[in-house]
Amino acid sequence: MTTTAETYHVPVLLKESVDGLDIQPDGIYVDVTFGGGGHSREILSRLGKRGHLYSFDQDADAEKNIIDDSRFTFVRSNFRYIHNWMRYYGVDHIDGLLADLGVSSHHFDDEARGFSFRFDDAPLDMRMNKRARTTAADLLNNASEEQLADLFYLYGELKNARRIAKAVADYRRNGRIDTVAQLSKAIEPQIRNEREKKDLARIYQALRIEVNHEMDALRDMLAGATGLLRKGGRLSVITYHSLEDRIVKNVMKSGNAEGRVEQDFYGRISPAFKPLTKVITPTEEEQQSNPRSRSAKLRIAEKI
Predict the structure, then answer these.
(1) 113 φ, ψ (degrees, to nearest 5)
(2) Which of 69, 128, 236, 300 keeps 20 to 30 A from 191, CA to CA?
(3) Left, alpha or beta for 146 (phi > 0: left; psi -120 to 50: alpha)?
(4) From start to end of 142-246, where are the E strands?
(5) pLDDT tens, 117-140?
(6) How many whole angstroms separate alpha carbon 124 and alpha carbon 122?
(7) What angle is formed at CA 131 by the lines to CA 187 and CA 60, rounded to 5 degrees?
(8) Quick check: 304 and 231 in contact, CB under 8 A?
């Protein structure tokens, strides 16, 4: 099947997330997760002639979906460098930022990328940026058993993280783990049939987060966004698991990823954002038509 912008990725919570930006026709906006360009196209449809949109994506495949519009600039980079890139383009302040943090449909469906456990012969790659050095296979074969245990516990939230790490270490003594099938065979003794898909999803999530340094990148991006957003500017973020959602929630409530409440000399709290809504989740209809949306949560906040 030929990949198009439509098949590359179906945007989640499209209307809700873009509505949350309260688009000003002449404003400057950033979509830090361009992917198939669904959210970006919706933002552009609401901008006037003097508005502008900057969209980030570190994956070369996303460049196939670049939008031919004078009001659009594509930035091939990890979104963690948003502050530097906006300075490069001479932008001091932005009116809104949108982030759809999940893995795109394209990545899950492309066997060669190794993001899904559906393809036995797939290489364990998981790099969002194919120019990066370390793959998931590199981690599995080179990290210590203790490092793997920490990884599965912290990023996969797996209670049996140590046993899974030991299973990997035992298996690789007799050969490398380079494919989905080899990883499945290595951890099979520690995966219960009734929890197989959930546990595999968490293992793959943990590896993907580490390979792409996702938590550090998210913290850096949100710090950059906090400094760039003008007063009244909007932050609209879609998350898919508790680790990233916790960071986004903390930033929107306290202004920092740790959730640390900062007070001035008089004990007054001055948060950077005002949350505008409760958590927004997809409708039943969207969840049925786009299964990827089932774990999605949208948070919207305004810069104070």
Answers:
(1) -85, -20
(2) 128
(3) alpha
(4) 229-239
(5) 878 789 999 999 988 999 999 999
(6) 6
(7) 105
(8) yes
C-alpha pair distances (Å), 198 with each of 92, 126, 232, 267 = 43, 18, 40, 45
Residues 12 and 290 sit within 8 Å (Cβ to Cβ): yes
Per the CB < 8 A criterion, the answer to whether 240 and 97 are in contact is: no
Count other Cβ atoms within 10 Å, centred on residue 51. Answer: 18
For 275, other C-beta atoms within 10 Å of its C-beta total 15
- Joined together, the tokens standing for residue 30 give 């950033």
Per-residue pLDDT reduced to its tens digit, 211-255: 999 999 999 999 999 999 999 999 999 999 999 999 999 999 988
pLDDT tens, residue by residue, 63-101: 999 999 999 999 999 999 999 999 999 999 999 999 999
Q: Residue 99: name the closest of 60, 65, 55 by CA.
A: 55
Bridge-based pairing of strands 94-100 and 72-75 is unpaired
Distances (CA, A) of 295 to 10, 202, 240, 264: 15, 13, 5, 37
pTM of the full structure:
0.91
Q: How far apart are alpha carbons 22 and 15 in whole angstroms?
A: 11
3-state secondary structure of 178: coil
